[in-house]
Structure formats: C-alpha cells, structure tokens
Amino acid sequence: MLAACRETFTTASRSFEPPNKENSIMKTQAMIKMITVSSLVLALGTPLLRAQTSSTTASQRGQLSENDYHFAVKAARGGMEEVELGQMAAQKGLSPNVRNFGQRMVTDHSRANDELKQILAQKGALLPANLSHSERSTLADLQSVSGRDFDKAYTKDMVKDHKKDVKEFESAAKDLSDPDLRAWAQKTLPVLQEHLRMAQDMETKS
Predict the structure, then answer these.
(1) Cα distance between the two ends of the chain
(2) Please, which contacts does 152-157 make with residues 24 or more away whose CB atoms are closer than 8 Å?
(3) 3-state class of 18 per DSSP?
(4) Fold of the domain built from segment(s) 61-204
(5) N or C of the chain: less Cβ packing under 10 Å?
(6) Can you give the residue ranges of every domain in the chain?
(7) How far apart are CA 14 and CA 25, in angstroms?
(8) pTM over 0.90
C-alpha cells in the first residue's frame, strides 16, 4: 500500500515538472523572428504606399503644383454647384429676381467652368467628376423647400458662398504659380464680385 502511494506521488510530481528550458528558448526565438519579419514588412511597405499615393496625386495634377491643383479642384466643384443651383433657382424661384439671378449663374459659371477645363486639359490635370458631400447636401436642402422659403434660402446661400469665393479668388489671383491658372482667377474675380453684389441686393429686397 505504501509503495503504491509512493509511485502515485512520483507520477504526479513528474506531471508538474517545469517546462523544458530548451523548448522555451526555441519558442522565444521564433516569436522574435516573427516580430522582426512583421516590422520589416511594415518598414518596407509604408514608403511604398506613400510613393503610390504621391504618384497618384502627381498624375492627377499634371503640370500644376499641389497648391494650384487644390484651388482648381475646389473652383471646379464650386462652379458645378453654382450651375446646378442656378438651374434650380431658374425653375423654382418665386421672385423674378431670383429666377433671373439663377439663370445668370448658369451662364457665367458654365463659361468659367469651360475655360477652367481647357486650362487644366492643357496642363494634363484631371477635374473632379462629382460634387463634394457638402455641396450635394446643399442641393438636397434647397430641393426640399419651395416658394418664398426657397428664395430666402437660395439668396442666403449665394451671399455666403460668393463671399467665400471672392476671398479665395483674391488670394489665387496673387498667389497661384501657374500663369494661365492665375490669369483665369484674375479674369473670373470681377464676375464673382458682381455676383456677390447682386446676391446682397436680392437679400436686401427679400
């Protein structure tokens, strides 16, 4: 009986022996190798990703600097928005002043957009095909109202938008590095200033 107990105790003791030191070292070395390989992949992959992103941006802007291209994209989207809003105002406006102003926006901004497209095509730069989320949201908001409410909301948006446009074009007319794009900004600025005066006049009369 005593011998059997001793044998049981010995067997149990063996089952709780500490892990083999050699196996522990091998596992640690394997983990270090995995961490090293992962770090190397990240180190090599990050510059490659940056290079691809930079290359994509460069191909989009063609000969334009990053700053010039940023302005051109913003101006193009703004021009597209003005045309769509103008078409809406020409159809939905209650006041003749609003309808006439909307038609003026379509005419002037369509012309300016065409000129900008021509310049960017010469520079090998790509224009945005769609409006931004914010611009689409503005269109949706105005589409949801009608009558006097539409006139008021549209006029308010035109004053706000053209104040911002005039400020941006004033800077662009001085600071853009591309001479053709800068000349376009200088040519378009007085048109935007006139639009702002017209919008403010509408706001006063509404």
Answers:
(1) 109
(2) 152/206, 154/85, 154/88, 154/89, 154/93, 154/98, 154/102, 155/98, 155/199, 155/202, 155/203, 155/206, 156/203, 157/85
(3) coil
(4) Ferritin (1.20.1260)
(5) N
(6) 61-204
(7) 21
(8) no
Per the structure block, which two tokens stand in for 175?
Answer: 């600071």
List per-residue pLDDT tens for the chain, 206 residues long.
444 444 443 444 444 444 555 555 555 565 555 554 444 434 444 443 343 334 447 778 889 999 999 999 999 999 999 999 999 999 999 999 999 999 999 999 999 999 999 999 999 998 877 777 778 888 889 999 999 999 999 999 999 999 999 999 999 999 999 999 999 999 999 999 999 999 999 999 87
Q: Which helix (H) or strand (E) covers residue 80, if one does? A: helix 66-92
Other CB atoms within 10 A of residue 193 CB: 15
- Token pair recorded at residue 158: 């035109």
